[in-house]
Each structure stands twice: as C-alpha cells, then as structure tokens.
Amino acid sequence: ASTHCHIHMLYPYRTLYSWRIRSRSFTQVKCMYSFIYLLLLLSPSPLLFVRFRWVKDGQQFDPASDPQVLTSEKSGTFSVVSGDGPISKYMGKYRCYASNELGTAISEEAQLITENTPILTKEKRQRKTVEEGDKAILNCNPPSSSTPPNIHWMDKSKFHIHQSDRVTKGLDGRLYFSHVIPSDSRDDYICHAQYVTARTILPKEPIQLIVTPSNSVVWHRKPHLLHPTGSETRVLALRGQSLVLECIPKGLPTPSVTWQRLTNGVLSTSRTSTQNFGRWLRFNSIDESDQGDYECIANNSQGTAKHFFTVTVEAAPYWIKKPASNLYAPGENVRLECHAEGIPTPTITWSLNGNPLSGLDPEPRRTVHGGTLRLGDVTKSDTAVYQCEASNKHGIILVNTYIHVIELPPQILTRDMKVYRVTQGQTAVLDCETFGSPRPKIHDTLELVLSHAWVSQLVNGSLQISNASPKDSGSYMCSVFDSNLSIAASLDVLNRTVIISPPEHKRVQRGKSVTLTCDALVDDELRFLISWLGPLSLDPEVVGIYICCRYPHLLSDRPDPPFNLTLTNKQSRSLTLSWIPGNDHNSPINEFVVEYEELRSRKGHWQFLLNSSGDIQQVKIPLQPFCNYTFRVTAFNEFGRSEPSNPSETYRTPPAAPDRNPEDVRTISTEPGVLTIAWKEMDKYYFNGPGYQYKVMWRAAGHRSHWNQSAVSSSPFVVREAGTFQPFEIKVKAVNQLGEGPDPILVTGHSGEDRPLMAPQNIAITPVNGSVVQVKWVPVSRDSVQGHLLGYKIYLRRLGPQDMRGIRVQGGHESDNGDSWVVDVSGSNQVEEVLEGLRPYSKYELKMTAYNSKGEGPFSGPHEFDTPEGVPGAPASLTFDSPSETSLTLHWSPPRDPNGKLIGYLLHYQESNVPHSLCLNYVYHITLDNLDPKIFYAFYLSASTSTGPGESIVRTAATLLDGGPPSNITVTAGETNVNLSWVAGERYRNVVFYIMYLNKNGGRWEMSEMINSTQSFYQLQGLQSGSQYRLSFLFNNSTFWEKEIKTEGPKGGFATQGWFIGLISAIVLLLLVLLILCFIKRSKGGKYSVKDKEEGQVDSEARPMKDDAFGEYRFVTGDNEEKRSVSQPSLGVESKLGSDDSLAGYGDSVDIQFNEDGSFIGQYSGHRDVPGAVGHDSSGATSPVNPMIMPPSYPGVPNSVTGILNRGN
To answer: Which keywords does the record carry (predicted)?
Structure first.
C-alpha cells in the first residue's frame, strides 16, 4: 500500500515541520518541535518533559499499543510497518497533542490516505473509423488515483503525438481532432498515464484511427464545441489556486478560439494567460477580483460558436491577524486578537490547552467577543496555550498562542558605554532595550535634554535626537525605575565638511602649466578626499569647466515615511487629511499615495484611495457612512517608495440609508413552478448602516398589479408556485435600519423551465450525395417550448443497406447495421442542418426533438430515407495460385463497404512498361496466361458501382517455376531412424520422390511413403539399431542420389534385459488389443475389404487441402473428420524384398514400375498394388504471396509408431 501524509503541527515552545510521505511498505507520521526564543531566557526544565498523544477520527489513538507501529522515544513520531494487518486501517484524520507543565498545544488536522499503486486492467484494442473532415475524440480513461495523473499521447516509438490547434489534448486527457485528415490514420495512438507520486507510467492499449477518404467531403463547416457541451458552465474556484477554463471546437477550417470577460469587458493580461493553442484560459492564482462571467468564442470563415462561464471564487480561511505569544505579569490584562477571512466567512473558536472554551466552566475574568479574547487580572495559574481555530467548508486553520504569567526581574539588554556618531543635521537614536515581567519602565537622567522639542523617547525606550548639532554631544544615562540598573552611552556630533576656498577661473597660454586650488574644512575625526571633475580629453586645445568635489558627500536614497498624520474638518461624508513629509534624502518627493483601511469590513486590507503631487501635504477624502477609517501615506521619489507612514487615528462615520442597490439582478430558476431571483451581493463597505437587508419585489410581467415583496439577508430568493416559464418583473433594493436605497432598475425574468411539449414538424430530407443529406423542418411554437429554446437534436439510425438481395456478400462483411448517433443543432432560429458522414446506398431512420435547459421534448415521428450509391471500398482480399510457370490465378473477395450494387471489377497490371486493364463481370477469380516467370507483377484491383470505381487493393505476385528433387540432402542417423533435411526452393513447384532402403545385415528392399520436395525434412523410421543401410532416392523411376549410413547401436541398461523386454511386449500387445477393439467399435462392428479401403483412400485424395494448413488434409466419413500429417507413413503390410543389396536382384520376384511423377504402378509382395501419386498438375503451388500448399500423403507401409497410432484414431 502506498500512502500520502501532509502534516503541519505546532507544539508548546516548538514548531512541527511539514512532511509528505509516499511508500509501499513503510509509513511515518512525524511530530517534531523546536525551541521558542523567549523560553531560552527561562528555566529549561519544563522542556524536558513533553508528553505526546494522538487523536484519530475524534477517538484516542495509542501508537504504543499497536504491534505494527513503531514509536519514537524523544518525539511523537510513529511509524507503521507493513506486517500481518492491512495498512489501510490507519487511514483517517489525525491530531497530535503535546503537553508539559506549562500547557498543551495541538496540531492542525492532518489526513492520512492509503491506496494501491495504479494498475491497468486488460482491455481490448480500440479501432475507430472516421470519415475525412469529421471530428474525432480518442479516450484515455486512466486508472483513478488520489493524485490525478499527467496524460501524454505518444506513438509506439515513444515520440509525442504532434499537437496543434487542430489536434489538442483536453483537460480530461482525451485527444480531440477538430477535423481529421488522411495523415491522421495510424495504429499507435497510445495514452500514457504518469503518476508522479507513485513514480509509475502506465501505457494504455494502442488505438487505431482510420480516416476513410471521401469524394464528398464538405470543406466548409461552421464551428461547434466538442467540450464543454451546452451553452453555459458554472465554475467554483478557491482563492490562491489555479483555474483553467477550456473550449475545444470542431469545424473546417480549424476554428480559432478567443476569450473575453463579460463582467467589465477587460480580460487582465497580468492575471490570465492563454495556453494550448488558445483552447485554455489559465488563472495562476485566482482571487475575488477574478470572479465574474467569461466567454469563449470559436470562429472560422463559416461562423462562430460561443460558451459562457460563470466563475465564482470562494476561499479557505486565511489569517488577517494572529494572536501573539507573550509574557505577562500577575495582575495585567491580556487581549488576544484573532481575525481570519474566507468565503464563506470563517467561524472563529477558542480552545484552552486543546479543550474548547464552550465546554469549560464559565470564568468571569475571561470573555470572548468574535475573534477577540480578553483575560483580566491574570495570575500564574492562567499560564496556558490558547488555540484559535478558523473554519469554513473549505478548510480549517489553527494557531497556538502561548500565555506565560510570570514575574521576572528587569534586565537591560543593550551593552553599556556604547558610542554613537552622527554628522550635524542627522538623526541619532540611542538604544536602551530592556526585558522583564512586568515590562520595565525607563527614564533618562538628562531631563534638560528631554525638555527640548527635537529630543523624544520612543516606545521601546530608545532616545531619538532629530537634526543633531554639536551641542548635543555628550554622555547619556538610561536607567530602570525602582532598580539600580542603568547603562551609559556617548554621542559625538561631527561637523559638516565645507569648501572654504573653491577654485578660481584661469586663462592660460597653450603649452603652459596651470594650478587649481580647492581648500575644505573637515572635522578632525573624519578622513576626506578631494576629487576633480573636468573634460575627459587631455587635448590642450580643450577648454572646459572644472569642478571641485568634497568628500564626505551627500548620498541620495528613497524618502523616509511621512509622519504626524492629522484628521480635520471631519464630516459624515468627508474629512481633510494632512501630514508632514519625511526626509527626502537629497531627492525631491514626486508623489504621495494615500491608502485607507476600513476596520469593519476590510480590516487588514489597505486599499488605494488617491495620490497627490509632491508639493501637496493636505487632501480632502470622500467617506462612506457606517465605516471605521484609518489612513496612511507613502512618499515616492526617483529612488523608490518610502515605507508607509504609521496609521492615523480611527474615524467612525455615522450610519445612513443605502445609496446604491445590488447589481446583476437576474433569475436563475431551474425547477418548474419555481421563480429563483439572484443578484450580486453588495460589499459590506456599502451597507451604510446596521440591519442591512435586501428587499426583493416581484410581480407577473404585463400586469400593473401589486408588488409582492420580502426582505432577505442574502441571495438567492425563491418563490414557489410561480408557474412554468412565466415572465416576471423583479427588483431588488438595499435597506437598513435607517431607510431604503434609491429606486432599483426593473428587470424581467422567468420562472423555471420544463421540457418542450412538441417536436419539430414537416421534416423534409434531401440527399446531396451518398454521404451528405440536408434536413429542413418547421420550428416548434414558442408556447410549446416552456423555456428558452436552445436548439434541436437529430437522432439518426442506420437500418442497413437498401437492398440486401442486390449486394452479393462473401464472408459476411456487411455487418454494420444498427449504427446510430445524435446531431446537436444549437440555436433557436435554426430550421435546417446538413448531415455528413453517412454511408452511401443505405437506409436510415431520422427522428428529431427540441430541447431547452431542462431537457428534450418528445420525439417526432420516424422518417426513413435512402442515400444514393457511392464508390465502393477496396476488395477485402486478393490471393494468387500459379498453375504453371507462365500463369497466375487471382482470387478475391468483395469490398466490406460496397456502398451500392457492385457491377464488376477493374484489374490493372503492368508488364515491361506496357499497362494492361481488364473489365471483369461480377466474378471472384481469373487466370492470366503467358506471363513472364522472371518478373514480379503489381496488380491493382478495384470494384465498381454505377457511381464509378472505388479504391484499389494492391498486391505483388510472381509465377512458380517447375521443381525437381532436392539436392544437398543432410543425413543424420539415430538408433532406429534416419533424419533427412534439405533446403526447398522458394519459387519452385512441389514434386514427390521416394526412398528405397536395404538392411545390409540381411533384409529386403523397402520403400518409404511419398515425400514432398517442399517439406524440407523427413524422418525414416522403423530401422534396426546398429545396422548398415543403403539408401536410394528415386524420382521419375530413376535414382538421383544414394547414400550408405549406419544406425547407432543399442544402449545398455535394464532396457536390454529379457524380463523388461517381455514386460514391454505384453503392454504393447494389450494396447494393440484395446486399439483394435476401439477401431471395431467405431466401425460399428462391420468389416470392409482392402478394395473398399483403397477406394476410400482414392476418394480422400480427390478432396482439396486446407489453405491455412501445412501438409494436412481432411478425410470425411459420415459426420466424423480425421486429420493426418504429410510425413505420416501409409498403412499397409510390410514389403518383403530380396536380400540382395541392389535393385537388380529384386526384379526376379517383383515387378516395379514408376509413373512420370515418381509413383509406383506395379505390384510387389504378393501382387499388392502400390497406390499412385498425384501428378504435377495436382500438386499444390507455392507462391511468394500465398502460403505453401502441400499435397496429401497416401497410405503405404507404416514406418513410424506415430503413423500406426494415428490410423487407430
């Protein structure tokens, strides 16, 4: 099992790190921690006793009690090792709790998922046939996984399928063809699913795409969308995530795709980008500003197709302000602020040491108001860890806040006797950092200096001296009240550098020397450098201006932030904001930018308000009622922007009645009889007062009746029993406790739709050609639609060819009856459609429906029509026989797609650059004579209908040459057999020959069965071991090769013992008896003469051999069928020849003759007839195109055990 684990946890004084684990046999869930800085100042003893516990799916989970789980001694980490039990039982949601003497912290909830590594199931290879110009979609459907795979379409050579605006991969992994062309035909479209986390790539079965050329391709087709379907798609996206909108069109020429935003008409190029040849619109990090309506437009020269997307953005909780951990002294008041945002608005809950406050006993000193927790007059027992958790339907976030109530003696952390140096006019800051609980209070002994306006004490205890002068130099003392702690610091204010004697103008004669002087007054503590700027050329004729520069010099930088923000002229709808610019650092301020934060509805989000030029430090600001405003100002110069100023004081505007109404008022009714009114909810910033609601008003359109109204707090609003698709006038007004908004705009909408009641009428079908028809109809009435008419659907079903009797089918190729598909005709004004991709000479049934957003209406009556004939496809097969060296017989089968009544075939072939053409009647074979046996011929065969000839099948063939007996025979002797092998000629016709063999130890001449020259191998069996044999090879009654061999001697062992031989003989005898009984039973107890048997053999020779079998034939007796091997010996009595070792001595006792084909025609051994062999003309022909065909073997003397057993079967 492989696992995923995403865990991020916080512990007392420690932080858990984030881990991701995927393993087949080992799963580790970690619970780690690190020290918090503040605690380094305290006693470390509580850190040594941290206790961990786990909660799984709300129940306590003890890893130590599970034998399959290993735990860590120093942390809460546990590991699950694959053992006897399934690892899937550990799937669930986990929280880790870490506790010590100072409190308990908890982690965020983490989910552990286990799953098997994806595997492929066995599938059939797909074959898809598409007509040229039509669209095509290749499906992938990879195994599902918690992590969706990456899809790659590749060929069998592992190269990516080339993609373009015509061929595109969709988000669903499918491969879309806007239209197909002949070059798209291939059999290796392979979908590879890449599972990144599993490190696995699964290749699916190859898909074969066949593009059939068409003589009737419509080269101009208007666009339609393959994906998505329908007219509108609603998309929900989460803030911060990426989103891709997809539009994949079909059409010819290939449509282009453009995108636009309908909400404000502007598509942000910085926030969006188009990909995948314009088919995708990507949002990399979506937020609320991207919410709205979008439209994709597919366009080519024939028209356009559109699809609308409504994008709604929601958000998982995210922090606006986290409560801070801190030290407190007894008696102090604690205020923890925890604010989070999200859509929907998150719910804030507080816990104490992991226990929800709602489940604890009430504590008068502890109060919670929303995200703010107050704890008054704290004591040491209030030391704890508080958890703030924000949650909505999209997620949960949690933060642990450490509150430590302790008394610590004050300390001064800044080192003593520190020296500060500044130049006259600069600002000096003397640090005095302290630590303690309660926070130490400090004072300075130079009270006279503190009384000056340019000297101030900062909140952190530091002393700030602005526009320092030499008289500010001296010693300063920082001390803590009620203690003897103090430090001293020295300030040195250095004089500015001043040029007291600048260089004077000089006139000098060419070639003479000149001296320029430059004297400067510099502080004794500074090092200085004087440099000169003048002409870059050293030519004595150059006259220029020389400048003396003094160092240290002034450096320019971005300005300091403005300060002392003041609010004046405060009114309900405006105020005046003024400020003092900060130091411009020798670069004039060009611009000020004013921002505001509204604490009621937009806290934590600073919004741009206005900008002003650098010479203006006062602006009038418009305000909105019922808001809490703070402002800040940022300065800009040529070096950049300053840090924002400190926020101004908060100004609260009084409430007022709304001054605007919600926008985008519309109906989104989906159920019949229900009116659903929706609108874009207003920002809280524009509520203008408490008790904000929406006043919804509606009435039937066309009637000046009384308005129905209702007050609600959010969109949408539902009205029941409103009728089916009835028009209504609707208005939505904003109201609060102080009054109503202005009169809203009147909008007309409709109640919910229902399916159409009628089907299109007067449907007329006109064939354009064999694969294209035009359909026209009368549109349905508006009242019967019961909604907005979106279009029509045409249902087509192929019933079969027009006349099965008129099409002679061989092999059952015409088997595609029952094909059906649906054509979507979008648009309410459509009254005709051109249907393409039909099969010629076919009978079709057509039905139509009208549809709206609710669905389809009833079907129209079926309309049958016929498509005219077209050109046929290529013949299904073309094979060859070669009766002689100069002739070929062609055999073929009709096309799988006749597309009409076949009237004949057209055959083309070429010989010595002389083309030949034959027009053939409806036949399936033809013999061509007088061919040249030295060359190969290319044959082009096509079928014809009344429309014309179709595609040709192309094959190459040559005639077969007359054969002869084999040469270069290899002989290998065994103990009781001899193996013979030779190389058969590829283009040579088969001949037969025999082997005569004589045992020279004393025996007679014996003859083998008939042997074919195309066999390439033969085994002569039934020989005596350890004997010398003479082999004579006969062809056409003459010997063409002789050979003497000796079989191997018998092998020793118990097999040569008499008792073993006797046992085997008894077993063989018993088997023979059983075989004879079975043979008698199969023959129904009857007996037959030798003559009947031979006649049966002759009958078997007259039967043809199987085309696809090598050396086999069929012998049929009733319903039974037997198969025999060509190398199997004939059945008959053993021939007894003379003991002489030549054929001459054999002639006294037997008369042997051979026909021209090498078969015996005489008698031997008691005048037994030897069956004749098939002649040259009856032997199978071997062709470079056709498989090799062997002639049947004939009954003869059995030379092998196999032959005997087969005869018994």
So the answer is: Cell adhesion, Cell membrane, Cell projection, Disulfide bond, Glycoprotein, Immunoglobulin domain, Membrane, Repeat, Signal, Transmembrane, Transmembrane helix
Token pair belonging to 170: 């969709």
Q: Token pair for residue 289?
A: 């500003």
Judged by DSSP in three states, 221 sits in: strand
SS in 3 state form for 127-159?
EEEEECCCCEEECCCCCCCCCCCEEEEECCCCC
pLDDT at 963: 76
pTM of the full predicted structure?
A: 0.42
- Residue 79 or 1203, more confident: 79
Whether 355 contacts 318, CB under 8 Å: no
Is residue 209 within 8 Å of residue 128, measured between CB atoms?
yes
Dihedral, CA of residue 574, residue 578, residue 582 and residue 584, to nearest 10: 90
* Count of CB atoms situated within 10 Å of the CB of 602: 18
CA distance 893 to 891: 7
Q: Which two tokens stand for residue 848?
A: 């139509």
- Given a contact cutoff of 8 angstroms between Cβ atoms, the answer to whether 1010 and 1030 are in contact is no
* Tokens coding 686: 């524009």
The tens digit of pLDDT for each residue in 590-630 reads 999 999 998 887 888 899 999 999 888 889 999 999 999 99
| Of 649, 580, 654, residue with least CA distance to 624 | 654
Sign of the four-CA dihedral 761, 765, 766, 769: positive
The residue assigned the tokens 């009733």 is 1118
Residue 489 in contact with residue 475, Cβ under 8 Å?
yes
Q: What is the pLDDT of residues 294-314, one digit of tens each?
A: 999 999 988 999 999 999 999
DSSP assignment, residue 1204? H
Structure tokens at 520: 């400067």
* Cα→Cα distances 955→884, 908, 958, Å: 19, 11, 10
Beta bridge pairs of residue 280: 246, 275
CA atoms within 13 A on the CB side of 691: 10
Phi-psi region of 228 (alpha: psi -120 to 50; beta: other; left: phi over 0): beta
Q: What is the mean pLDDT of the chain?
A: 79
Give the CA angle between residues 368, 369, 370 to the nearest 5°: 110
Bridging pattern class, strands 1163-1164 and 1168-1169:
antiparallel
The count of other CB atoms within 10 Å of the CB of residue 1127 is 20
Task: Extract the runs of DSSP E, i.e. beta strands, from 357-426.
Answer: 366-369, 372-375, 384-392, 395-405, 408-412, 418-423
What is the predicted pLDDT for the residue at 1084? 56
Give the chain's largest Cα–Cα span. Answer: 159
C-alpha to C-alpha distance for 616 and 673, rounded to whole angstroms: 62
Written as one string, the DSSP assignment of 1050-1105 is PP-SGGGSHHHHHHHHHHHHHHHHHHHHHHHHHTTT----HHHHHHHHHHHHTSPP
CB atoms inside a 10 Å sphere around CB 298: 27
DSSP calls for 751-767: -B----S---EEEEEEE
Decide: helix, strand or coil at residue 945: strand
Cα gap 1081→1041, rounded to integer Å: 45
Run of H or E residues at 1145:
helix 1143-1146
Residue with tokens 């063939």: 957
pLDDT digits (tens, 9 = 90+) for 119-167: 888 788 889 999 888 999 999 989 888 888 999 999 998 899 999 999 9
One-letter-per-residue 3-state SS of 675-733: EEEEEECCCHHHCCCCCCEEEEEEEECCCCCCCEEEEECCCCEEECCCCCCCEEEEEEE
Q: What angle in degrees, to the nearest 10, is found between the helix axes of 1201-1208 and 1058-1082? A: 30
